[in-house]
Design goal:
endoplasmic reticulum, rod-shaped, TMEM85/Emc4, mainly alpha, 0% strand
């Protein structure tokens, strides 16, 4: 059979037999180009498996950093919404403020679950987790700041007057017209 000819009678109409059975010099006699190292197929499988694992570890590390930076976008959006809500106490501003407090708290409670898909022996998740926690604490601080600007935090002395004991009378005065 000649090289590159279709195999007839194989049942497949367009099948091509690429086996080289000719006695002419073939491509096997051509020297490898500079820098090419012909390795055994087992070694190629091992290196490709190692490369795939390294690529997967790099992908997981990159995705972990993306997840860690996601609260920053939420922080900017929440800050804009708080600015739009204003500094007066009404239903919308209170709702936005409590949303700004609840989201970071719920995110901080689930840090382990958020980074679970990216857990790998080759991926260091400490940096992304610390960034995630820091950004969520920043969001929590933003919510507390908004509570303070709305006057809902007891930060003034007048907020604690009801818990103070009544003042003692220091002086007693009396007077009037003497009756004789």
């Amino acid at each position: 059979m000649e090289k590159g000819k279709a195999v007839m009678g194989s049942g497949r109409r367009w099948a091509v037999d690429f086996t080289d059975n000719s006695t002419a010099p073939s491509s096997r006699d051509i020297t490898d180009p500079p820098g090419f190292c012909c390795a055994s197929p087992d070694q190629d499988d091992w290196t490709s498996t190692k490369q795939k694992k390294d690529a997967e570890a790099n992908w997981k590390a990159q995705k972990a950093w993306e997840v860690a930076q996601a609260p920053f976008k939420n922080l900017l959006m929440m800050g804009f919404m708080m600015w739009m809500a204003g500094n007066t106490v009404h239903l919308f501003s209170i709702g936005i403020t409590f949303s700004a407090l609840w989201q970071p708290i719920s995110a901080l409670r689930t840090v382990g679950n958020v980074f679970e898909p990216y857990k790998d022996s080759k991926v260091d998740l400490l940096g992304p987790k610390l960034l995630f926690i820091a950004l969520n604490l920043g969001g929590l601080a933003l919510g507390v700041w908004k509570l303070n600007t709305l006057g809902l935090l007891p930060t003034h002395a007048s907020d604690w007057v009801s818990s103070l004991p009544p003042a003692q009378e220091v002086e007693y005065s009396g007077g009037g017209i003497p009756l004789h």
